[in-house]
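Convert to structure. Protein one:
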Amino acid sequence: MLATTYSRQKSYADNRKRPLEFDVADQVYLKISPLKGVMRFGTKEKLSPRYVGRYEVLQRAGKVAYEFSSLEKLASVHPIFHVSMLKNCLGDPTSILLIECLGVDEDFSYEEIAIDILDRQVKPLRIKEVATVKVLRRNHPVEGATW
């Protein structure tokens, strides 16, 4: 029964798994993760950037690893990355965030800092009133400010 259960779970996982492969000279994004103090239940801010850069694949370094060019800004980081940290670059190059602007650490994390309070509201509930503020963060445009 254990082998049957294992086989069933493996088939579920394999159906959802998407094979990622890149060729030499493909453009890819590199995954980063925002740090915002305490993350409750592993949730992150909706509008925080997840991928940076536009890097070119130099060579395949194994079955699931790739080496990149132009990582001068991240000289302390090893240039070979696992395929789970990559995303195929198909989008508009103007929407790319530069890694210098974010201040990414060696562990590919950055700290989001609130710059300004744009607006304040008081929402009345049945018993009490809740004050909310619209905050502009350092790496987001004014249109991306969140309540």
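Protein two, convert as well:
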Amino acid sequence: MLSTNELLQREWTGFRRPGRLIAMAVAALAVVALGLLYAFGNHASCDGPCPAEPTGPDGSLVNDQFSFLHRDVGVKGSITVRMTSMTGTITYPPPDHDQIVPGLVPWAKAGIIIKDGVRQGSSYAALMLTGGHGVRMQYDYRHDIAGSAGSPGGVSGEAPRWLRLTRAGDTVTGHESADGTTWTKVGSVVLPGLPETVQVGLFATSPGI
């Protein structure tokens, strides 16, 4: 009669036969392959049909996510804001990004915006401060105009920044100022087909939201 050790040794010897090892490897690969096929074939993360991805005025796919405090404005109107701070938190340092520290990524944005409603992908013009690129005027997801006044070093109570957007029909004009008295034009853009009433207000966003 074989002892327990002898039985285990015999089973291990049989298990190590090339045929059995190949069969086990094939079975394992089949399981992995089925799992990958299932993962690649199932992208839906919503109940029922997923909503269509937002598209901009030119029909291209866009990312349109931001915080927005807004109200109605008619065919003529303006909004002015005095900004004294811009703060946030970021994950740092690379490569693990495992610490949360105060700071702003270069393209974090906060400012004022005129937008054709609140639906994603609708036409807009915005004037903003950024985390590392100074004052910018951006519109319709593809266009960017750099401001001329001030430095990209941010704002404070001692060194605020005034921003102003003015609407006249389909034309939106942005101005910036360091003192609220002397204004510098950043840009003037045409947003064809703006309705009589649009949304105007404050916004903030950052890459990755």
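The first helix runs from residue 4 to 15. Helices lie at 4-15, 18-41.
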